Each structure stands twice: as structure tokens, then as C-alpha cells.
């Protein structure tokens, strides 16, 4: 853009950076320091200011060259002391398989013969599986006011519907109650834990009810968290910024009281689901200890398979490890699953399948959500599916591609159900909201087997 053209552009907003961003055809909107014309990123434009260089710890930001030493001591990407509960790759599964596993091959690189063989393999492997998942759309009354709030836009309303159904399913399974610790994996802003807290608020004296724990696990630094809303004397709250892959739950200080655990998650992306299942069912308690048996209810009881609540006034399970009462996790992004982390490896191997087939099924699983996805709906989805070029499998119609994608997701999730069964749990896959709310609408639930 010529200088004359730039001169004709609108001036930068008062108090904002005066650098013109050529790519965006507008001035930078960052706030500037008093007496300055440019923001920190564009300060090099200011006369007498040290040039900016890329931070050696994180190439996503820059720093003044003369302040590099000072910056490296406080950069968020610097190496920090590892907490006690950090145990490298403790939930990674078969991490050493990475060097032996075949390299993932995109569908575009496969021949038509290979693709047809992969489809035939999928058809054989899913024979006998219940392909029509039960639809069970629920809503919890604690959301009624917020769902009817006209100030909430369409996107916020869809997220509220998902959270409401997840919490209602927790209640149906007998998992929603005090006297336990809710571990939210992939917590993000922590909205799901917030609503669990709202649903379990009580009018009793808080000083005598320190019997609810909320543990949020999120690897990223998150803005606009709702953690401040948990300032309640009756709730113990903690947020861990750590990858689930390295989290040893048995060493988390909050869990020293050993309240029974309930795992939750809303759209736990790809391999994160497998990491969370291992974290909850393998590293929170020794293998030899069975899960708590479910309480026998009267014949008139609706929820006759609810897990037994903690009857003692002290820590549940006395001096033993904390038991796992169950979980409810909304699944997402199967194309981001990895064979080395996958908990259903034995399930696949028993079917005569291995990492090569798993990779292909993961790639095709995205067809379940991207084939007929409307542009307006994409904006509301939390994660984008991997896209293959349109000429891949041209012999399949969009509807057939979507069906193939759903079968791939079902097969991958069936391996997770198999893993849960091996740990003494009854797992189930349910469509918890309609596809108009989210295309990733499958909820994985589990409670101890009878």
C-alpha cells in the first residue's frame, strides 16, 4: 500500500497502536503505554527503541532485545519446577510404541483398492455392534433460569443445553451429590464444574459441610475462568495446569481426604479421553482394589443401580485409596486419537486390527461431522474436524460418508467400553443432545458393574 493510500485511511483509535497491519488492512488495536505511539509488538517503529526479537522459548511472541535476559526469567514458557503430581507419561499408555508404529497416511495418499479394503474391514469389525445409540436428551432444573434468559445468544444457549444434559445424566446415574470429588478433565473455563457446584448448593451451615471438592484439570492457560465463583466455605477447589498425560491423581494434595471420585468432561478431544480414562481408573487407585459396589435399592426405586454413597463421617474408604464412583464424558474429535494412547488396543487386536487400521478409521471418523456440516453451524462447534479433499472416495455419497464416519467413531468408542469393562465398570454410549445442538453429541458414561 502506497503512503498516499495509507494517509487516506482512518486514523488509529485514540490510545491504540498506530501501526498499520497490511494483512488486515487496518491499524493495530493494541493499547499503548502513556506517551507512546506503538504497542509492545510494534515498538520497533518508535525511534530510539530497542529492536524486537522472537522469544527463544516461545516463537509466538517477541521481546525487546535489550530486555531479553529479564524476560526469560518470567516468560510463561520457561521451565518451571514440576509439582509432585507430575509424573512424566504416567497416563500415556504405550508411549514407547511411537517409534514402532507405522506413520499415519492420509486418505488422499491411499489407492482406491486400499480404501475399499479399509471400508470392508470396517464393515466386518462393526458387525454385531449396536449402531443406533439411544437418544436421551435431559435437562437439569438448575439451568432453567439461564436457559430462559434472552440475553444468551445461540452459541451460549447450545453450550448450556449440553452442560444441563450432562449434569442431569450424572444425577440419573446417582453420581451427582456431595461427599465426593468431581474431577473435570479438559476444564477450559470451568463452566461444567461451576454448574455442578450450583446444582449441589445447600442452605445448611457451610462450616459443617466441607464435603464437596472440585478439581479442574487443563493444560492450557485459560482466560475468563469462572473459578472465582467457587468461593464457598463448603467447597474445596483446585485448578491444575497440567497435561492429563502426566497427571498422577494419587499425589494431588486436594485428594488427601480421599473422597470418592467422579470424572466429568465436556468435549474431551481425541486422545485426551483415553488419557483421562487411564488417569481416573489406573493412577488414582491400585489395580488390585475393586471399585465400590452399588447400593441395593428398593424395587420401587427408579435408580436401582446407583453407586453406594459414602456412609462414614470421615474420609470415604478409610485409609485406602479414593474409589471411583463413575464418569460422564462428552466425546469429541476422534480424528485426534493416537494408537499409542488408545485404551482399546486389546479390543482392536482381538478383532485382528492394529495401528494401521486404527489410523485409517480415525481419519474417516471426521466424516461423521464434516460431510453435511452447514457453514453457520461450524462456527458453533468447539473443534474443527480434519478435512480431506473432495476427490477422496468419490464413489461414496455425502450421506454414505457420514455413515462411515459414525461407524468409525462407534468402533473406537467400543474399544473404550471394552477397557471400562476390564476395570470393573459398566460403560454406555448415549446421544445426550440433538445434532442441532452439536454434531459431537455422544456421552460416555460409566458406573461400577454389579
Topology:
Blueprint: H1 3-8, E1 20-21, E2 26-27, E3 52-54, E4 62-64, H2 68-74, H3 112-125, E5 134-135, H4 144-147, H5 154-172, E6 180-185, H6 191-199, E7 212-217, E8 235-240, E9 261-269, H7 271-281, E10 324-332, H8 345-350, H9 355-365, H10 367-370, H11 375-378, H12 398-422, E11 425-431, E12 442-448
Parallel strand pairs: 5-11, 6-7, 6-9, 7-8, 9-10
Antiparallel strand pairs: 1-2, 3-4, 10-12, 11-12
Helix pairs in contact: 3-12, 9-12
Structure notes:
This protein has helices spanning 3-8, 68-74, 112-125, 144-147, 154-172, 191-199, 271-281, 345-350, 355-365, 367-370, 375-378, 398-422, and strands at residues 20-21, 26-27, 52-54, 62-64, 134-135, 180-185, 212-217, 235-240, 261-269, 324-332, 425-431, 442-448. The chain is α/β, with parallel strands linked by helices and 450 residues long. The strands form 3 sheets. It has an 8-stranded mixed sheet, sandwiched between helices. α3 crosses α12 (398-422) and α9 (355-365) crosses α12 (398-422).
